[in-house]
Amino acid sequence: MGETDVLIIGQQPDPHIDSVADRIREFGGEAHVFDRSFAGSAVGATFQYERDRRTGYLAFGDKLVDLGSVTSVWWRVKPSVLADLIPAARTLAEDFADREWRSLLEALQLLTSRARWVNPRCTDILAANKPTQLQLAQQAGFAIPRTVITNDPSVILEFIDSAAAPCVYKPLTWYLEPPHRVIFTSIISSEDVIRRRETVRYAPCVIQTLVPKQYEIRATIVDRTVFAVRIDSQRSELTAIDWRRDQDGLQYDGCSLPEEVEARLLNLHCRMGLVFGAYDLILTPSGEYVFLEVNPGGQWLWLELRTGAPISSQLAKTLCSR
Q1: Residues 19 and 101 in one domain
Q2: pLDDT given for residue 63 in this prediction
Q3: Coil/strand/helix, residue 17
């Protein structure tokens, strides 16, 4: 174990992990990548509780990482798509083992008292909640789209009928049906709601008025450093509502936010207790910045490759700092 020992909890392959780990090593630190999906003979974990002390370590082959010596932890755990979406694809034993690993790893923060977490688990979970995001963004001074979150079709119909603009639907979490079916933000009409009334009742959904866009901004914040990228989503009809529909085909350019907007964003970042966050904003034709959402575990590597923004390096520096 070295002076700077960074523990990365995630799943391979993940080029984000590789990029950050390489830079941690360039800065003279050690990067230990713990992938629970390969739990078994390759990796192991032991937590021990005595009357007056708690100890724990993770095993990587023949190497042990003492959790008490870890200086930083990066929680880079992605959803297990097949496990979360198609539980029947696994045996009961596999499902049980996965839950056991999740439960153990969620307790890591108690045994890494010296470590800086990116992000602390409690703030990560809170910040990922869309209703919470919207409320905190308003409190920080951001405009947000007019919004209703409900599973009541009559409420949605009333909302759409009273709106002075088209409305969109988006999920509260995410939906991916292998291999390629994803739920994107989409225009929704009264006819859609009436036709799918029973589906709407099945689970709450987010309905918002469509905000006019000059362009969109992805602002990635690492600690207190903001990397803002302009996304020209309005150049294509395909990406006008949701730029993720053709992410690779878009133009990305580094940009600067007005001083007061950046200050507002950093204030929101602080309110959420985040070290890392990927924020989505709209700049309207009238020049107003509108908050959409934040992903505390968002992707950034494609933006780094397209714009040169040194996000991996900044994250590695943050993980290597005391």
Answers
A1: yes
A2: 82
A3: helix
